[in-house]
Fold this sequence. Notes:
By secondary structure, this protein is of the alpha/beta class. Helix content is 44%, strand content 12%.
Amino acid sequence: xxxxxxxxxxxxxxxxxxxxxxxxxxxxxxxxxxxxxxxxxxxxxxxxxxxxxxxxxxxxxxxxxxxxxxxxxxxxxxxxxxxxxxxxxxxxxxxxxxxxxxxxxxxxxxxxxxxxxxxxxxxxxxxxxxxxxxxxxxxxxxxxxxxxxxxxxxxxxxxxxxxxxxxxxxxxxxxxxxxxxxxxxxxxx
Length: 189
């Protein structure tokens, strides 16, 4: 809905980010899949949202669908004092490495468990555990064996188990690491 972005929306975000219980700004980013708004409108809103997040020293939760190059370029333009996570990461190993260079985290969701997601698993294996989060993206992207049904937050453990399996770690080690990463990124206990 980037075509609806205006100064009133920006002021509302500022008001919300000033609340002590708000720990991040998101999801923000680019989605070229559905084309609800023109890419230029999305890019303008994304840049302004990144600026607002930095005003309040808040991390961002980045949505990126079929816009890897443009998303990465905008993040590079705004890398000073930028913190955040690429939610439901779906990019290449090269994109992941560029995101890590910017100090960002990568979050993996249900697709990590899908049979045809070998490239995504290769990315996850190559990434350092201290820069990874896990998520469900509920109500979407249910992990195997629930693929195709409404996703639920309680299924995040299945994503963590798959991450542990492919990295050759215990589920408990992955749970502890991803919990610590979440707490560090969002400043929560």
